[in-house]
Amino acid sequence: MAPTKKVGILGATGTVGQRFILLLADHPVFTIHALGASSRSAGKAYKDAVKWKQAKPIPDNVENLTVKACISEEFKECDVVFSGLDADVAGDIEMDFLKSNLVVFSNAKNYRRDPTVPLIVPTVNTNHFDLIPYQRTINKQTKGFLITNANCSTTGLVVPLKALQDAFGPMSHILVHTQQAISGSGYPGVPSLDILDNIVPYISGEEEKMEWETSKILGGSDGKQFLPLTDTIVSATCTRVPVIDGHLESVSVKFANGCPSVEDVYKALEEYTSEAQTLDCYSAPKQAISVNKAADRPQPRLDRDMDKGQTVTVGRVRPCPVLDIKFMLLVHNTVLGAAGSSVLNAEVAVAKGLI
Ligand SMILES: NC(=O)C1=CN([C@@H]2O[C@H](COP(=O)(O)OP(=O)(O)OC[C@H]3O[C@@H](n4cnc5c(N)ncnc54)[C@H](OP(=O)(O)O)[C@@H]3O)[C@@H](O)[C@H]2O)C=CC1
Ligand SMILES: N[C@@H](CC(=O)OP(=O)(O)O)C(=O)O
Questions:
Q1: 18 C-alpha to center of ligand 1: Å?
Q2: What separation in Å is there between the alpha carbon of 253 and the centre of ligand 2?
Q3: Predicted confidence (pLDDT) at residue 3 exceeds the cutoff of 90
Q4: Do the Cβ atoms of 60 and 47 come closer than 8 Å?
Q5: In terms of domains, do 312 and 194 share one?
Q6: Which of 169, 269, 297, 336 has the highest local Cβ count within 10 Å?
Q7: Same domain? 215 vs 344
Q8: Which ligand 2 atom is nearest residue 87's CA?
Q9: Are residues 15 and 139 in the same domain?
């Protein structure tokens, strides 16, 4: 068996960091080697630094690790560094790590728009790893590179859209309305007096991110640059609802080349397979899309943990009287929508020989 890769986790005490720890605790390829967080946590044992909010306990091999400052020197032995850092600090820290020839998989928004940084949803566009040799050339790196994963709501959206794009060609119009879980805003996140018995019809910056990230992810790449979609209009409305985990999204699409039938849409969703699955990666879901035809599904509480939280559940496919087809989807926002994407992206990078 190949030796395992040593991994570091930045932002290890946060909501996404805790997910990283659970996903990596007994991983066959990656071994947790170093944990980083702010100066509030550095120097403490992990169990004393973290406000652990997961149903499973802190893994035994992690609870007594000493949390380090997020300085590249402290992580130089790591083959892979996962970042769940607060976006206010992620930009400088991740750049320091990249310049130190480290491999970084980031959840933060800071570099998603960078024309040299792939924005990868692992069950959608792992072909964008093709840009890594070029990124290494321009950064003069032999080993290091930087990959970002997408906003959690964008992640859920692009998986079924990719299946529809592959089957029926380009989409000219996409309307999406999200109902997002509170874990998406970290801890302590939205005040309880704002969210209990309520829905907040605004999440700062979220709609813009969904609109442009979708076109970068579903667009192409020529090995040196991304070719975002130019003929697809995306309009997003994002809301916060009193659910702990799992973003529910209502989507309507219009196709450039005519409207497929509901049956054909279901078939395309059911048959969709991504490269991460064909590479047999450990964290890849059996199905990138789980179709549920029950009239009242998907639902956050019932569907978010499907296939380890790495699958997107789609249901309620029906004709749209305004556009062509509409449906509902559910994505686990802190698994596939965050840490799970990074881990699966890293597994794909190992399979492609990039790490
Ligand atoms: N939650 C979600 O569903 C998603 C989140 N993301 C992104 O992932 C990132 C993390 O989000 P989330 O886990 O929710 O955030 P949290 O607020 O829960 O955690 C933030 C982490 O960053 C650390 N941190 C804060 N300031 C510093 C600093 N100055 N130096 C080093 N470390 C610091 C914190 O350490 P300490 O405990 O010591 O303060 C903590 O570990 C964000 O960029 C977010 O936008 C992306 C997709 C989905
Ligand atoms: N804004 C998302 C979570 C998040 O942090 O997204 P991003 O990484 O795009 O800032 C949510 O509230 O559910």
A1: 10
A2: 23
A3: no
A4: no
A5: yes
A6: 336
A7: no
A8: 10
A9: yes
pLDDT tens, 259-299? 999 999 999 999 999 999 999 999 999 999 999 999 999 99
Q: Would you say the CB of residue 245 lies under 6 angstroms from ligand 2? A: no
Averaged pLDDT for residues 326-330: 98
Q: Which of 78, 128, 238, 247 is catalytic?
A: 247
Q: Which atom of ligand 2 is nearest to the CA of 185?
A: 12
Look at residue 172 and tell me whether its pLDDT is greater than 80.
yes
Same domain, 218 and 292: yes
Closest atom of ligand 1 to CA, residue 67? 38
Q: Is the pLDDT of residue 2 over 80?
A: no
Query: 108 CA to middle of ligand 2, Å?
Result: 8
Residues 290 and 255 in one domain: yes
Q: In terms of domains, do 210 and 267 share one?
A: yes
Active-site entry in 152, 238, 281, 332: 152
Residues 165 and 214 occupy one common structural domain = yes
Q: Is 152 in the pocket of ligand 1 (CB under 6 A)?
A: yes
Per-residue pLDDT at 47:
98
> For position 343, what pLDDT does the model report?
98
The single residue listed with the structure tokens 């044992």 is 45
Domain that holds residue 134: 5-151+339-351
C-alpha of residue 90 to centroid of ligand 2, in Å? 14
Q: Is the CB of 203 under 6 A from ligand 2?
A: yes
Reply yes or no on whether 152 is catalytic.
Answer: yes
pLDDT value for 1: 59
**Predicted local distance difference test score (pLDDT) of residue 316:** 98
Tell the residue nearest (CA) to atom 23 of ligand 1.
11
27 an active-site residue?
Answer: no
